[in-house]
Amino acid sequence: MNGTWISSSPHDLRPLPERIDALLPQTQCRQCGHPGCMPYAQAIVEGEGIGKCPPGGQATVRALARLLGVAEVPVESGIAEPPVRVAHIREAECIGCTKCIQACPVDAIVGAAKLMHTVISAECTGCDLCLEPCPVDCIDMLETAPEQARDRQHKADHARQRFLRRQARLRLGEQRERQERQASSEQRAHHARLAPARERLPEQRRDEHADALKKLRIAANMAQVALSKALKQLASRPNPQLQAQVEQLRGASEKAQAELAQATQHPAATAPVARPAGVEALRRAKIHLVSCRSALKKARQEGTDETRLQALGEALAEAERQLHAAEEASGKPPPDLQRTYKRPVTAASQALKTELAFARADLSRLQRDPQSAPARLAAAQARLRLAEQRLERLEGPAGPS
Question: Keywords of this protein's UniProt record, alphabetized (predicted)?
Answer without folding.
Answer: 4Fe-4S, Cell inner membrane, Cell membrane, Coiled coil, Electron transport, Iron, Iron-sulfur, Membrane, Metal-binding, Repeat, Translocase, Transport
